[in-house]
Amino acid sequence: MASVNSREWRAVCEKFLRSQELSEKESRKDPENDPFRSKYEARELLKEIYCFLKNVDADESEEEEEEGEEEDGQCEQSESEGGEAAGGRTHPGDSRAGLRAAKLGVVEYYLGVNHIETEELSAGEEHLMSCVKLLEKCAVTRENVSLCIQARNQLGILWAGRDETEKAQGFLETAKSIYVRYMKEDGQPPLDLVDFFVVEQEAPSQQERMRRFEMVYTHTLYYLAQVYKNLEQYEKAGQYCHSTLQRQLKFSQFVPLEWAINAAALSQYYITKTRYMEARHCLAAANVIAGLAGEVPSEAAAKESEVEYEKREQLRQKRAEIARCWIKYCRNLLEDAKKLLEDNIGELDLDRQEEMLRARRDEEEEKERGRKSAVLFDSSDTFDSICRQEEKVSSVLPLIFEEASAIFLVGQGYVAQAKEYFEMDGHVTDHIEILQDHSALFKVLAFFEERLERRCKMHKRRVDILEPICKDLNPQYYLLICRQLQFELAETFNEMMDLKLGVADKQDQPDAHTIKKLNHLCTSSIKYYQMFLDSIRSPEGKFPEKLEDDLLRPALAAKFRVARLQSKIITTNLNAQLENLNHSLDSYNFVVQYCEENPEAKKAVETELELSEEMVSLLPMKINRIKSKLASSN
């Protein structure tokens, strides 16, 4: 083979570096009508290098083959002891045959990547598999380890793109095992792929080699996170995602906004597992790292420069997305606490509350400290800032109103921040979801409030948030959202009426103002339940004989509540009473008859059905008494 310092070898190295430049830099400037021009040029250079390597000096080739046979024997012995990833260990310079194989492997690798990038997947797979086979007996060596991992990473991506997730998993898990074994048995900076095609004085430093190698393994973990997510193994996916983020921070291998969004997304997984300490840590880190992307340019600057405009919009969007993740954190933390504290009718169980307060003292703090040590993003540059962010909100389930209120206020602050970007004009569904989360925050905060009047005011805030949107939204384009809003508004007015009734029960005789208020809440709830039910009707106004699964429970529950509300309207007019009770009986009858005709529906509304059957037998007697009074008065 040509001497490392010979003019011929230098020409080969220059071709290699030129192919890299074409592929990684100049390809970005390729015209739309010839998008792969630079990639094709790079491919031709790689082919020339490959031919050069295959046509080495015959005498040196024979010498290398003799040395290679001895080394292969050692590798095969090691292979038989430890499997594919176990290959024997050599050191740079120990085997010229091994180095030549590695160089061929590098070219095969880049040819594979080149074909994949030009959408020639089968050819790309062939070159990558050739690379793997060239080095499979000596995968865990300083010459080969980085190349072997990168080839399997690419094959993992390739098979994942073909929806062959288990094949992708196999390549990536092997890549991981190669890294783990190499770090255990050697751990020194391995050769980087460019090392094979640069003169010694231009080679990367040991520190740079190690940085690049660690980056390769970080990519392996990132791809494994995606694979396990697609396999719906969310626990493993979460672990790999956390490890990826951890390593990106540790080795400074991240784009701030991208890292922050990924950390915020991971927090949502932890929320589903009620692991709020971990979720808070991810969100706090997301805030800090997003801050590294700089300040949001002013509106004036954005108007003057397209670059500043794009930067402003990107920063505003990503920070608003992180804010939305914080809202979900606060909402779910409050709702999970409510589930633990409520009794069988959804009210605060004071005995359970006191019991949990006693159990939490000291115990919970120790438990959190133990868990926290395992999940910290241990970047010394950002650690203190992350801790300061965490201190702004608890990760412990709130048990009393003051604790719930503190979490609510944090969530409400992020609602305001998210709405600044996700405005109604241009972001309809996002804006409405934020409003629904805001309403949910008020709803769960009201659970912790003991004073009925204050609880009623919190629900009134929910009406103020949702009612204007519900009135403005066109159901022709946003039918599902309209139904959600109508049902929630009906529920909110219903809740307010029950609270007002509770307050009125403490009075000797409700005054005219209280009665008017109760009736207003009652009719408002009926109005929105009816709007929801009418949205289910056909264009001809006919109610479906059989309800769809996703509408079954809410539709029958709405009918039941309308029946209850109609009987709650307070009036001294006997004719009005009679009319209201007849409407109420019709609604109760609807629930009973629907369940008789569709027995599978009974399970969805067991409680409502039982009460409806009871009212169907009782209401006629009440109706007849009123009829008798009317007859006698006439």
TrEMBL record:
The coiled-coil segments of this chain are none
Question: Subcellular location, in the record's words?
Answer: Cytoplasm, Cytoskeleton
**Which keywords accompany this UniProt record?**
Cytoplasm, Cytoskeleton
- Cellular component aspect of the GO annotation: cytoskeleton
UniProt biased composition (Acidic residues): 58-82
Residue ranges of the region described as Disordered: 58-96
A GO BP entry is: efferent axon development in posterior lateral line nerve
Explain the purpose of this protein.
Activator of KIF1B plus-end-directed microtubule motor activity. Required for organization of axonal microtubules, and axonal outgrowth and maintenance during peripheral and central nervous system development.
UniProt similarity note: Belongs to the KIF-binding protein family.
What is the name of this protein? KIF-binding protein
